[in-house]
Amino acid sequence: MLTLRRFFEKDAPQLVEVCNDGDIQKYLRLNKLPYTEEDALSFIRYCQFSEKRGAKGEQCFAIVYNNIVVGCISYRRDRGCHAHCAEVGYYVGKQYQNKNLAERSLKLLSKLIFVDESVTRLYAVPACENVASCRVLEKCGFVREGTMRKYFYKNDVYYDCYLYALVK
Length: 168
Hints:
The protein contains five helices and seven strands, in the order E-H-H-H-E-E-E-H-E-H-E-E. It is an alpha+beta fold. Helix 1 packs across helix 3 (about 35-55). The protein is globular.
């Protein structure tokens, strides 16, 4: 059974297990190996603070599969004249991949976001070489709109990224 829910401090050990993988971290803004329980607790506190800020903050959800936190999915509303847009991001632990969990989570989150009629555009910016993430987006109806060259920089490497969008 798959659910999305808010993070709790008790989720820290499961989050550590998922995030202590260089392959998982490769395309994330996260750049912390080893990923400790204190890192997980700090992230969970950030999520809880953002939840209190409402539409002004990033909204993070635990991806829970059979009562185990297997990843994270989030969205962040843009501001100003782009306030109708929201960026989505997600990751699922290696041992839980190839079970359509990212796809199912993104479909659930997209429905949740689009309930707010002021959001008319969801977008994601995966690295071009992150084929699995691109495939998830396409299965969820996102359309590749273009390539953003040298958009992502991490560990002394520039990555070209695709721009994907789902429009209501």
